Amino acid sequence: MKLNTSNIEELAQLAQQAAQLAADYIQTQVRKTHEIQHKTGVSSLATQVVTAIDVESQRIILDHLAPSIKSYKLGILTEESIDDGSRFEKNYFWCIDPLDGTWPFTQQKPGYAVSIALVSRLGDPIIGVVTDPYHQVSYLAMEGRGVLKNNQAYEKAKSKPSGVLHCYFDESFLASASYPSTRDQLHLISERLDCTDLEIHSGYGAVMNALSLLDTDTGCYFKFPKTNRGGGCSWDYAATRLIYEELALWASTAQGEHIPLNNSDTPYLNEHGVIYATTKELHQELISLEAQRKQPH
């Protein structure tokens, strides 16, 4: 079944409602103490951490989306459930992260969000919804129709250059062996971009790392490819990829290709990496940095 404009608008509204219901629930739980469990088989702390709040948020979302799944014959890919393969059988699937940034949530800090996207079987996002419970901000993107922020038309403001290169990272990367050399390279990149300062930010989940760049004139969030399982999954990037595309910003793999959202083998993107950037020049610098990193020393 091919979705028409009316179908997409209906599904976008449902996704917004589901994300808001989940966000409202999450925010009632943020001041409480939660038992933290750890997933196995992944390399980073951010990927391992899960709580009962993640699971309940997912239930709330799926309950709200259930009629659409039946009516439109949609597949599902969601973080806290086993991949049932329906994303390969249906023309479209819901791609859901019920609580991205579980770690900052458990620390009662900003950086967590609900992310819901509708993705085609080819791996392209059609609808992208993100709700930030902490700041009570929501984003909605529909393919070819721009972005709404809190239900108002949104475009990234063109601000006067601040002279600062803002870089967002997962906390685990700051403790990695490759971070010092990467930071040195970023200083060189900042000089080439006529930035006088480099600011490193960490502690957010992947979704809010990407969206926080919208408040910067020159900013990036990236994860270079690695062999270990992790590096984020389709549900971490599906909604923000569409938001960036609709804002004519740069979201890609570390090689500059579209972020694949329906890989046949695994939803993990560790072999691809990701780059989000607010300028074309910065995006190209990071692609070049990855190419240099892969060269034998």
UniProtKB/TrEMBL annotation:
One of its GO terms (biological process) is inositol metabolic process. One of its GO terms (molecular function) is metal ion binding. PROSITE patterns: IMP_1 (PS00629). InterPro entries: Inositol_monoP_metal-BS, Inositol_monophosphatase-like. Gene3D superfamilies: 3.40.190.80, Fructose-1,6-Bisphosphatase, subunit A, domain 1. It comes from the Bacteria. Pfam families: Inositol_P. SUPFAM superfamilies: Carbohydrate phosphatase. Its cofactor is Mg(2+). Keywords: Hydrolase, Magnesium, Metal-binding. Mg(2+) binds at E79, D97, L99, D100, D236. This is 3'(2'), 5'-bisphosphate nucleotidase.
